Amino acid sequence: MKKLKYDVIVVGGRIGGSTASLFASKSDVDVLMIEKRQEIGSPVQCAEGVTYGAFETLEIEPSERYVRTRVKGAHIHAPDGRRISYEGGIAQGLIIDRKIFDKELAIESAKAGTDIMLKTSVKDLIIKDHKVCGVVAKHLGKTIEIHSDVVIGADGVESNMARYAGIEAYRDPKNIASCAQYELVGIDVDPEYLEFYFGSKIAPKGYLWIFPKGDGVANVGLGIRGTVDNAIDYLNRYVSKLDATPVELNIGGVPVSGPIEKTYTDGFLVVGDAAGQVDPITGGGIHTTISCARIAGEVAAESVKMEDSSAQFLKNYESKWRQDIGKTLDNSVKYRKMADKLNDKDMNALAEFIETQDIEAISKISVLKFVGKHPNLMKILTEIL
Amino acid sequence: MDIIQENCGYCGTCVCVCPENVIELEENGLIIKDRCTECGNCAIVCPLGALNPEG
């Protein structure tokens, strides 16, 4: 029988939830993690690429149980077919099985002392004197109230927790990438490279990705914004040209707005997709979520020990994660807005320019000369700078 | 807003763009409570076309 009072309650049992609960439990406080589904890690809503840095933050060695391939770079395909190769940096990392990884992370958290409730949905927050102090949860038709000093919302893009806590309004659909992905068998790709395809025909205001999982298997997916056709229509059009068989279909929305304005209030923190802690350019959110959720878990535990879970104390979470990745995300929002304005012709021109340059040593003069020949790019650049 | 339940993949993306906060993702499907203003946000982001604004 679970208790009806915890120090910290974490709503959501994916990467954000498990990381936050793991680090809160490691700091010796009583933690409950609530997952609405009956199975952790399923269904997958992710392209499953992760950086090595994410594992360093977790202080966990990547395990062969979930690592499918290790990639060293990316091929970026312009609308006209021009291809740019890039190695290292953010294009370097691991392709994992999220179903296994998410479960392993929950196991780590449970081993550290976290209690976990499955098939339990949180219907509301308990708020007293403007302070969040627990959740109203429903499990197998039974409604239970569970109290806590801090609630951490890690409930994904469809987050209700942040809304219940009064720190987030709805999101503009312009800032949500609508995504669909097949795991395909029988696809001929370089197992050490990610593939990215750009263009208004393939994926308007987004891109199509191919993430190799080894042995002729790959995640082929795309994210789009503001289209009449649905993500699945674009994906089916692309996939119909391949002689490959799907074994899984994943769908979901990715917030590409950058972080929400405020990620804390009295007795409450929000992490991950729910907080918009996703790189707006790539749509990647594993490493950002892990960084922020670790801080959330540690700050929540500290607040319990200090007996102060006021907004004033929990603000530490926001200052710390902003210090960590705030600037990167802010810049990324800026670049995304710039990229939104590029048409296919601009992208082709950019690809041609990059192709002819030594990336490490692009001079200002060569950029100015190039932009001078492309008035639309010049206009975009002037607007941004 | 017309819901095509058999298209719904339960991803919840529609929930986050609803200005009226009237979409609920229940275990047995999507529910839109009565205050829908037909803004169409949910239909724009649905990856599987489970929401039809013409309904």
Structure, described:
Chain A is of the alpha/beta class. Chain A has 3 domains: 5-48 and 97-171 and 257-336, FAD/NAD(P)-binding domain, CATH 3.50.50; 174-255, 2-Layer Sandwich (D-Amino Acid Oxidase, Chain A, domain 2); 341-384, no CATH class. Chain A has 10 helices and 18 strands. In chain A, strands 1, 2, 8, 9, 10, 11, 17 and 18 form an 8-stranded mixed beta sheet that branches. In chain A, strands 6-5-13-14-15-12-16 form a 7-stranded mixed beta sheet. Chain A has a 3-stranded antiparallel beta sheet with strand order 3-7-4. The model of chain A has no long low-confidence stretch (mean pLDDT 94). Chain B has one domain (2-52): Alpha-Beta Plaits (2-Layer Sandwich), CATH 3.30.70.20. The mean pLDDT of chain B is 89. With 55 residues, chain B is α+β, with helices and mostly antiparallel strands. Helices cover 16% and strands 22% of the residues of chain B. Chain B is built from 2 helices and 4 strands; from the N terminus they run βαββαβ. Chains A and B meet through strand 12, helix 5 and strand 16 of A and helix 1 and helix 2 of B.
Rg of Cα set of chain A: 22 Å
Just name the CATH architecture of the largest domain in chain A. Answer: 3-Layer(bba) Sandwich
Count of alpha/pi helices of chain A:
10
> In the CATH classification, which architecture of chain B applies?
2-Layer Sandwich
Distance between the amino and carboxyl termini of chain A: 58 Å
Overall pLDDT confidence of chain B = 89
Set out the fold topology.
The complex is a heterodimer of chains A (385) and B (55).
Chain A: E1 5-11, H1 15-26, E2 31-34, E3 49-50, H2 52-58, E4 67-71, E5 73-77, E6 83-87, E7 93-96, H3 98-111, E8 115-117, E9 120-128, E10 131-139, E11 142-153, H4 161-164, E12 176-185, E13 193-197, E14 207-214, E15 217-224, H5 231-239, E16 245-255, E17 264-265, E18 268-270, H6 286-305, H7 311-340, H8 344-355, H9 364-372, H10 375-384
Parallel strand pairs in A: 1-2, 1-11, 2-8, 5-13, 11-18
Antiparallel strand pairs in A: 3-7, 4-7, 5-6, 9-10, 10-11, 12-15, 12-16, 13-14, 14-15, 17-18
Helix pairs in contact in A: 1-3, 1-6, 2-6, 6-7
Chain B: E1 2-3, H1 13-16, E2 23-26, E3 29-32, H2 41-45, E4 51-52
Antiparallel strand pairs in B: 1-4, 2-3
